[in-house]
């Protein structure tokens, strides 16, 4: 399982860089603009420069409206600024058809510019609270649009977590559908270390966190700390070893 960490700007990205050996993807966002809030192009560029070259930089395009042209152009902006993972939160899409239309535009805009870029279609585990597409529709939306991964996060950061809205067996189905479509499955949403056993068991490819590696577990007031990133990775590694042993014993 890959570890994606979301700093809120250049200063925190430098903290991530200090823990680079413990993480896989640095995800640029602007949490005060929403759960998948987009940051400025110059921030993405500066973070790309601050993070070791072998660590991909991801950028969120925002909690986007159903405006395919606007979103495609914004996604290209993220790619031009140096992000190779382009994450789109389909906040304003209420049907799978709308979501496929938005993501198809993103895939074309991004891959025309950079064919090896990795496009992530993200929905929300708590979609019922904001009226957007059902979380379990995401793997098919990602497949139909030519995206590379399907992701879930939570839209409302009020302390409720991924599994509060999409229980483990439904997350397992999400992963199964994503894999069946040849996609990676990414899961986030106030994930804590205690969730890692389940996320490992169900075959999650990427886990995204912020709060869990911030001081005090506070994604807003706390700051990302390298020692917390290292501790979170150690837990991931422990669960990966335990899972491998269990599978080998079957
Ligand atoms: O993409 C991952 C998100 O930033 C997760 O943030 P969170 O762990 O604070 O919910």
UniProtKB/TrEMBL annotation:
Keywords: Lyase, Schiff base
Entry-linked InterPro entries: 4HFCP_synth, RibuloseP-bd_barrel
Enzymatic reactions: 2 D-glyceraldehyde 3-phosphate = 4-(hydroxymethyl)-2-furancarboxaldehyde phosphate + phosphate + 2 H2O
MF (Gene Ontology): lyase activity
Enzyme class: lyase
The enzyme's E.C. designation: 4.2.3.153
Chain's role: Catalyzes the formation of 4-(hydroxymethyl)-2-furancarboxaldehyde phosphate (4-HFC-P) from two molecules of glyceraldehyde-3-P (GA-3-P).
Protein name, entry field: (5-formylfuran-3-yl)methyl phosphate synthase
Lineage summary: Bacteria, Bacillati, Actinomycetota, Actinomycetes, Kitasatosporales
